Structures are given as structure tokens and as C-alpha cells.
Amino acid sequence: MIPVEEALAKILSSLTPLGAEEVSVEAALGRVLAEDVAARVTQPPKPVSAMDGYAVKAADVACVPATLTVIGEAPAGRGYQGMVESGQAVRIFTGAPLPDGADSIVIQEDTEASGTSVTVKEAPALGNYVRPAGLDFRMGDIGIPAGKLLNARDIGLAAGMNHPWLRVVRRPRIAILATGDEIVRPGDPIGRDQIVSSNALALSAFVRGAGGEPLVLGIAPDEMDGLTRMIAGARGADLLVTTGGASVGDHDLIQTVLGEAGSLDFWKIAMRPGKPLMFGKINDTPVLGLPGNPVSSMVCALLFLGPAIARLLGQAAKGPETQPARLAADLKPNDRRQDYLRATLTIDADGTMLATPFAKQDSSQFSLLTKAGGLLVRPPHDPARKAGEIVQVIPFRDSYF
Ligand SMILES: Nc1nc2c(c(=O)[nH]1)N[C@H]1C(S)=C(S)[C@@H](COP(=O)(O)OP(=O)(O)OC[C@H]3O[C@@H](n4cnc5c(N)ncnc54)[C@H](O)[C@@H]3O)O[C@H]1N2
Ligand code: MOO
Predict the structure, then answer these.
(1) Which end of the chain is more exposed for a tag (fewer CB within 10 A), N or C?
(2) What is the DSSP secondary structure assignment for residue 25, as one 8-state letter?
């Protein structure tokens, strides 16, 4: 058996980041930026008012009250064209350009208007409520660095920097193939001795959440010809993910089929759940073969598929992060496999995270994976643990997992 880290390193070393494509800025949420976003405008382009009021010369109103002649109006988007001379003011609104000759804004609450004149009652400091040109950014400033996963704030800044289109890393195309004569798609007639497939759709959701483009190929039978034909559907994908048929049974054919058409390593990984895992290539498409047990396939997705997608997206590719938590139940000594126990995670009175592993941990129990708040990680040969001891957990933080 090989350790989890070794398997992950092998997978990552055989994947290379994908190229870029252009998408509209509004379609770029959740995409990875392929090149720096530099401002194509200066914002604000010229000095503008930050308040509704009057544009004045500060020197004119150093002694208050002071009465000025209102010579015109500057609404946002349509600035005053003339020059403000001594003794004059321009009625101005938030976002409007500061008229030539004016240097400060008096807010309307500090004035009294009467016909074509205005009396200023509070003296403004020089530059009061004036936003200088380039206060936010200047032409050429780098707003968002390449490699950033774009969120709504980034979309706003990129749009404000005048980018209708952005170059982003192409979404990894991940083909997903479930295998097994015993499984049917949800909603299809369920034959005698058959069960409903959960893995392919769970993996599809996982891929989408992680930034990939899933393509569910369907369910391949436990028979060479059918399996070979279904695998051919993965042509053009950046990665083929299979579930089931990874073990040593007579009907576990994935390894044989893939091995004949490409190259495939079969590993036993020192982890539970998720011991049998395959990795290799077929027709130059990398293949990740996950175990069929539903919880094993999802834990393997979290540990291996997530980082693999991150690598294809050119992002830092590493396993999920752990954090300390206080154990809420005693645990027996662990054997040589690294354990990933489904656990509820709660916060106790002093703010410490409390991990309560479920008593049953069979890798067929998807319902417990959904109830869990995270995985309690136990290293190989971890000694018996008592409630109250500190352990490491992987909280399910990603909104899509
Ligand atoms: N003699 C041994 N038997 C097994 C070993 C072993 O080392 N020696 N390993 C066990 C472990 S650990 C695992 S994990 C499983 C992995 O088995 P496979 O990857 O070959 O998967 P299958 O046999 O096809 O299925 C296992 C289990 O999962 C159910 N399944 C399969 N696909 C789906 C799906 N899409 N949705 C829902 N459930 C699915 C399937 O019906 C089986 O119950 O092997 C152990 N055996
Ligand atoms: O790896 Mo299996 O996942 O222990 O059931």
C-alpha cells in the first residue's frame, strides 16, 4: 500500500495546466484568470464631487457666512463647461466633474440658496469632498493578478477597469463513467438485485463545483465490449474518472480494459475508505479510477480529483486542509490505513471545534457523508484516543461539497 501523499504527487506530476479562452466578464464568475487584468481607464477619469452641494473656490469662503453667485449646474455625466471665477459657485451633484476654477465642495446642508445666489455657512477645507483623478486606479494599474479565482468583487473591478471580455483558463473537461451491472440511473426501472447509482451524479456535481465541465458518459456494463465502447466516449476529455471495478473481483474489469488500451497503474492506498485507486492513460487521456463504494468515491474525489482539477486550472494543487478539533468520543487504535472518519463538527461553549465520529463508518453509507460536517483524519497506526484529545479534521468548507 502507498501513502495518500505519494499517490497525490504521482497524479499531479502527470497533469499540466490547460490553455486559456475568452469569456464575457459576466460569465467569468468562478473562472480562473489566465492573465493579469490591467486598468484600461483611469477612475475617476478627472476630479469629481463626492457629495451634492456647490463647487467653490475655498479661498472665497474662508470667512463665513459668504454669499456667492450660482453660475450654473453640474449633474453627473454632464459637467459645467465654463470657468468658476472668484465670488462664483456651481450647483453640483455626486459624481459630477469638478468645474474648472473650483477646488472644493460645500455640501448643500451647509448652505442656504436664494434665487441665483447661495450663502455658505461652513468654511470647507481645500479639496473638501473632491475625489482626485485616479483615486481608485490609474490606466495600466494591475487590478487582479493572473491565477485568481474570480468572485463577484473581481467581476465588478474588471468591469470597472473597462474589460467586457476576460481571458480565463479553459474549464477542465472531465468525463465520468460509472460501471457495474447492478446499478441504474435515478428514475430508471430498477431490476431485481439492482441499486440506484449515486456516484456519477455526485462526481458530476463535485467537478462542476471545483471549476470543471463534467460529462457523464453513463453506466458501463461489467463486460469487455460494452465497457470498451463506453470508454471511447471520453475522447477529447482532459481527464476520465471512472467509479467501480477498481477492486480485485472477477467482474472488476476496468483495469483490464484500460490496461489493454493504454497504460494503467493500480494502487492500493493506505487509506480508509478508498483503498483501491487506478491512475494512468488511455489514448493520451489521463484516467483516474475511483472505487465503487459511494463514500470511497467521494472521499477520493476530495483528496485526489479536487487537486487534479486545481492543477489543470493552473492553481495551487494540494489536498484539503486540516484543522485541530477536540474529540468527543473514545477511539480504538488505528491500523496501517489512514482513516477518514465521517464526523459531525460543532463548536462548544469556549469556541473549540468538537468532532463526533459516527459509530458506523461503512463506505456504502452515503447518508452519513451528507450528515457529516467533515472528516476526522487518523494517521496510520494512530494509538487509541480518549474523548477530549485534540485530533485533525477536514471541515467541509467548500459550498459545493
Ligand atoms: N477481496 C477484496 N475485496 C474487496 C477489496 C479488497 O481489497 N479485496 N477492497 C474493498 C474495497 S476497500 C472497496 S472500496 C471496494 C471497491 O470496489 P470496486 O471499485 O471494484 O467497486 P464495485 O465492486 O464495482 O462496487 C463496490 C460497491 O459500490 C457499489 N457501487 C458501485 N458503483 C456505484 C454507483 N455508481 N453508485 C452507487 N453505488 C455503487 C456497488 O454496488 C458495490 O456495493 O472493493 C472491496 N472489495
Ligand atoms: O476503500 Mo474501501 O473504500 O475501504 O470501502
Answers:
(1) N
(2) G
